[in-house]
Each structure stands twice: as structure tokens, then as C-alpha cells.
Write a structure and sequence with these properties.
392 residues, alpha/beta, Cytidine Deaminase, domain 2, Helix Hairpins, 3 domains, 15 strands
Length: 392
């Protein structure tokens, strides 16, 4: 199959629409269920590249949760502790496979952004992973294969209309890529730069110690950034992205946005949040929205009389700003990657508030000295990678 016609492009008025291969090559995918759309395929192909590179770099199964051509989450298949199992809503599912753990992490880190995601899996989808996907609101999944039981589970989703794509893991694109904007064709060499530990060898701060676990987190950050709309930064802890700031014109706004997401991930683990008692039958999305509001500055939107009764069995106390700051001060050893250099030390100041200790960025700013000095003030270890990772 050399081409696949689509219903429409990014929007319903953009017709005709298709994906196709030029020359004699066939499309490297099979649609096993559903009718994926234009944006679905953009997310699927970007996500597949991301998880394939995560697997190559770490040797662990990987998963990504994509929304609008940027990852909402990305992770490798490390085991989940009891707290993570609870905040990712998989504590009722028993032991999970490494691939299922990877997707639980990718989906669960930023549940607001990953709602209605397109999923990418580095390995053959197993039944554990399919069961997690089955219970979440999602547009589709791409993987190199599916176990028979997993495929049956996925085909039952959305009344048989869930998008399931199988990709040839041996497919490699041409070394030069093209895109059109305003009828004008752009050409560039593909970004085939391998992200590995060697990129982290030039540590420019007084603190030179980056343990292997932090190097894995930094590689996850950089690979995630490679497929995130720029400008972008990515906070990672324990084998998963916990905050991704994508597509901001100012880098410090990326750092703030991603830092707020990382903070929310950690706040959801606080006793005040774990102890929330939701009314019976509340939908998963309504529960996630309520948590997001409760830990934010607009908490009275869910705590006001006449509102909390529809969400909680017992009215929760206000999670005060002081209590939240005290809890966040316990977050440590977070890794942070940036797709281009930090131009000012204010990015480091903000990162420190979210527990960042390890940083990887290209370097090359005229203010590198100021950025290094700020890292030294906080005892951070920062590596200059020498490579930029813009993605558009």
C-alpha cells in the first residue's frame, strides 16, 4: 500500500488529504482497526521515533503520550511504587509488565494534557498495556506489533472504532526530508543525532557528579525534546518526564510551564491529595480535573458550598500555599533538559524551585558564565551537550 486517503487534514475544510510514499516504497504501517486522521498520524509517527530512540538509549521498553504533535508524557518501563500506582489510577490492576508501567507513567504524569492522547509503544503491545489503554480516553496507538489478546482488547474500544496502527520496526526513512509551507518546499537532512551518555561528558559546573540514574533521566529529557515543538524544556525524574514545556517563544516561560507541571505531579503525591474522598461513580476525567483545580490557585472552584458535594464525599480542607511549598521542598534530584541554551540564570532559579539538580543544555550563550554561576549557587551539576534540538 503506497497511499492512504484520509477524511480530511488538520481541519474538516482541508481536503483532499492523504498520506503516501513517493517512489517504489510501500507505507511502513498497517491500520488494524479504526480510521486514523491527519493529526493522529503526525502524533503516531513522531511518537514512534521518540519511543524507538528511548528504547535504543536505555534498553528499556518505552511509551509516549502525544497530543497535537508534542509529547504530554514519555517514560521507560521501570516498576511503579505504591504511590505512583495510586496517582496513575492503576493500583487495582495487580502486577504490570514493564511496557504497561512505561505507559502508566507516560499517561499519568500530566493527565490533563494526555487526555485524548495518541499512544506510542516501543515494544509489542501486551495485554497489561492494552487493559490500561482500554480504560483511558485516547485516540489510538502505534506499536511494532500486538499480542492477540491485546489486539482483541483494543478492538473492543470505542465500539470497534479505536485506531490501532502497526508499524514496521525495520523501516528507515530517507536521509533527506521535505515539507511544504505556503506552496514552497523545504529540504533538510533528518536529525539522526544519537542521544547517549557521551553527550553528558562535558560537565561545566563545580559539581561534576552525575550518577547513572540521572544520566538516564537526562537522556530521556533530551530524546523527548528532540520530538517536542520548540522552544521546549523537559523535567524528568525516575525514568519519566514529569513536566514538558513546549512551543513557548520565551525559554523562561517554557521553564515555568514545565516546572508547574512537575510541581503538580509531585503535589498529587501529597497526603492531602491522596486522601481525597471522591463521590461514587465520578468519571475519571472529572476526578482528574478536580485534583488539578484543588492543588491550584483556583481551589474554591471545587471547594465552594454547592460544588464540593458533587465531587467529594467529605469536604477537603484547603491545601494552603505554605503547605504546598513545604511539600515541594521535598522534591529532589530532578533532571532538566533544554533544546537550546539557557540565555539567563532566571531559568535555573525557577528550575531549583522544582527540585532540579542535574541539567543538560547545549551551551553557547554569551551569558553561559551567569548560568554556570547560578547552577553553582545551588550545587547543581550541568553538562553542555554542544547540540541543539529544535523541532518544528
Amino acid at each position: 500500500m503506497k497511499e492512504l486517503e484520509l477524511k480530511y487534514g488538520c481541519n474538516p475544510n482541508q481536503k483532499p488529504s492523504r498520506i503516501y510514499m513517493e517512489g517504489d516504497r510501500d507505507l511502513p504501517i498497517q491500520v488494524l482497526c479504526g480510521k486514523p486522521g491527519y493529526i493522529n498520524f503526525l502524533d503516531a509517527f513522531n511518537g514512534w521515533q521518540l519511543v524507538r530512540e528511548l528504547k535504543e538509549a536505555t534498553g528499556l521498553p518505552a511509551a509516549a503520550s502525544f497530543k497535537h504533535v508534542s509529547p504530554a508524557g514519555a517514560a521507560v518501563g521501570l516498576p511503579l511504587d505504591d504511590t505512583l500506582r495510586k496517582i496513575y489510577w492503576v493500583d487495582d490492576m495487580g502486577d504490570l509488565s514493564p511496557l504497561a508501567c512505561a505507559y502508566a507513567r507516560a499517561r499519568g504524569a500530566d493527565r490533563m494534557s494526555s487526555f485524548g492522547d495518541f499512544i506510542s509503544l516501543s515494544d509489542v503491545c501486551d495485554a497489561d498495556t492494552a487493559r490500561i489503554i482500554k480504560r483511558e480516553v485516547s485516540d489510538g496507538v502505534i506499536a511494532p506489533g500486538y499480542e492477540p489478546e491485546a489486539l482483541e482488547i483494543l478492538k473492543s474500544k470505542k465500539n470497534g472504532n479505536y485506531n490501532v496502527i502497526q508499524i514496521d520496526p525495520d523501516y528507515r526513512p530517507a536521509p533527506v526530508e521535505h515539507k511544504q509551507v505556503f506552496g514552497i518546499t523545504f529540504e533538510q537532512g533528518r536529525n539522526e543525532l544519537a542521544i547517549n551518555r557521551e553527550l553528558l561528558s562535558n560537565v561545566v559546573t563545580e559539581n561534576k557528579e552525575i550518577p547513572d540514574s540521572a544520566k538516564i533521566d537526562l537522556m530521556i529529557s533530551l530524546i523527548t525534546l528532540k520530538y517536542t515543538q520548540s522552544n521546549s524544556v523537559c523535567y524528568v525524574k525516575g525514568g519519566q518526564a514529569i513536566g514538558i514545556g513546549a512551543g513557548q517563544q520565551s525559554r523562561v516561560h517554557c521553564t515555568r510551564l514545565a516546572g508547574q507541571k512537575a510541581d503538580n505531579w509531585f503535589l498529587r503525591q501529597a497526603p492531602q491529595v491522596l486522601g481525597l474522598q471522591f463521590v461514587d461513580g465520578i468519571k475519571r476525567a472529572d476526578r482528574d480535573n478536580a485534583i488539578d483545580v484543588y492543588i491550584g490557585e483556583e481551589y474554591m472552584d471545587v471547594l465552594a458550598d454547592g460544588r464540593w458535594e458533587k465531587i467529594f464525599k467529605v469536604k477537603p480542607p484547603v491545601f494552603t500555599r505554605e503547605e504546598k511549598r513545604a511539600w515541594l521542598d521535598q522534591m529532589q534530584d530532578v533532571a532538566l533538559g533544554s533544546d537550546a541554551f539557557f540565555p539567563f540564570g532566571d531559568n535555573i532559579d525557577r528550575a531549583y524551585k522544582s527540585g532540579v539538580k542535574y541539567i543538560a543544555e547545549p551551551g553557547g550563550s554569551v551569558r553561559d558564565d551567569n548560568v554556570i554561576e547560578t547552577c553553582n549557587r545551588y550545587g547543581m551539576a550541568m553538562a553542555f551537550t554542544g547540540i541543539r534540538l529544535f523541532h518544528h
